[in-house]
Amino acid sequence: MRKQFVKTVEAVLKNDPKVVLLLGDIGVWGFNNASKLYPDRVHNIGILEQSTISLSAGLAMNGLIPIVHTIAPFLVERSYEQLKLDFGYQGLGGNFVSVGSSYDYAALGCSHHCPADVPILKQIPGMEIVLPGTPEEFNDLFLESYGNGHPTYFRLSEQKNSESQKVKFGKATVVQKGTKATVIAVGILLDRVLEASKNLDVTVLYYTTLAPFDSAILKKNCPSNKILVCEPYYKGTLATEVIDALAPRPIKIEFAGLPHKFFTNYGTASEHDKFLKMTTGDIKNKIKKLING
């Protein structure tokens, strides 16, 4: 997704003179060409994440469209107060593009993990949250929303789904229809969910935009009132959205997500998936248990 991010932003820089790119000492080499073409609009601010967010807010206040890019824990957790006050409270537009969460940089340990990015950003009123599942989906979603005047978080991943869906900002997609349960697949988890759902009578809804949440499509596609939410961050993050969307129906919700704890084991991302029970087999077991429960 990072290669597509570079291509997309280079095109936006070319076509929109209001766009300014601020880097946090990440992706500098990838944007080397852009920095030569647009030296007054591409800047590596360095390891000054809080200051970078505040600087980008100043740019937004003067009619520019900032794009800020660095690793998720530094962009979200280290700079949370600035995102909340400088963008959320002041109602400014900007784009915040991360890499590395939840544990894409698994071997670097907890300092570079960030399964809390989506949960905490949901607490900022007006913050839009986007988790594309493929590079092509990122391109489509970014071009549709980057200049909409809202603060928007894009979570890039080292992983991707095998095929892109026809995605639209703020809308979910019905990928499979069934009657015995509804499975919500967020971002890069779609491939695992589809494999786990083979030969099962379940609906699969694909979400790339989490905020704003598409409640309407869930209402229309949950005949069983049984829901499994598969989310690649701390589990339970979408619980309120699901409950509100289906109220006042009596529903049963289960989650395939990350436990609320530090991941202190070292290894690859796939090894973390196995340890944290986020594999296709684990999801399939949860679907079957939900159907039969």
Automatic annotation (TrEMBL):
InterPro entries in the record, alphabetically?
Answer: PDH/Transketolase, THDP-binding, Transketo_C/PFOR_II, Transketolase-like_Pyr-bd, Transketolase_C
Every copy of the Transketolase-like pyrimidine-binding domain together lies at 1-164
**Gene3D superfamilies reported in the protein's UniProt record:** 3.40.50.920, 3.40.50.970
Q: Which domain of life is it from?
A: Bacteria
Which PANTHER family does this UniProt record tie to the protein?
HYPOTHETICAL TRANSKETOLASE FAMILY PROTEIN, PYRUVATE DEHYDROGENASE E1 COMPONENT
The protein here is known as Transketolase-like pyrimidine-binding domain-containing protein
Q: What is the lineage of its organism?
A: Bacteria, Candidatus Yanofskyibacteriota
